Amino acid sequence: MKLKDKDKREIRSAMGLLTHIGLTMTISILGCLFLGKFLDEKLGTSPWLMFVFILLGVASALFSLYKIGSKKL
Predict the structure, then answer these.
(1) Using one digit for the tens of pLDDT, what is the confidence trace for 6-61?
(2) N vs C: which end of the chain shows fewer Cβ within 10 Å?
(3) Does residue 68 sit in helix, strand or coil?
(4) 10 to each of 4, 20, 65, 73, how far by Cα in Å?
């Protein structure tokens, strides 16, 4: 079964969107996780800053998903 050019473009567009969403969530959460761990080690506040920054990372990821979704509608 051969796909039409329009179908191929739609599949590529959907895959690009899924990759964008996945990378946005991963980078936001993991970046904040590592920043929180680093600050905990430097300030001796383990594990509190890590938890705070993980929550900030999740909030940032959700906000980014909202912005991505509102652009696509």
Answers:
(1) 999 999 999 999 999 999 999 999 999 999 999 999 999 999 999 999 999 999 99
(2) N
(3) helix
(4) 10, 15, 20, 15
Supply the DSSP string of 17-67, one letter for each residue: HHHHHHHHHHHHHHHHHHHHHHHHHHHT-TTHHHHHHHHHHHHHHHHHHHH
- Name the DSSP letter for residue 11: H
Which tokens go with 71?
């652009």
Other Cβ atoms closer than 10 A to 20? 13
Owner of token pair 């936001």: 28
Question: Quick check: 3 pLDDT over 90?
Answer: no
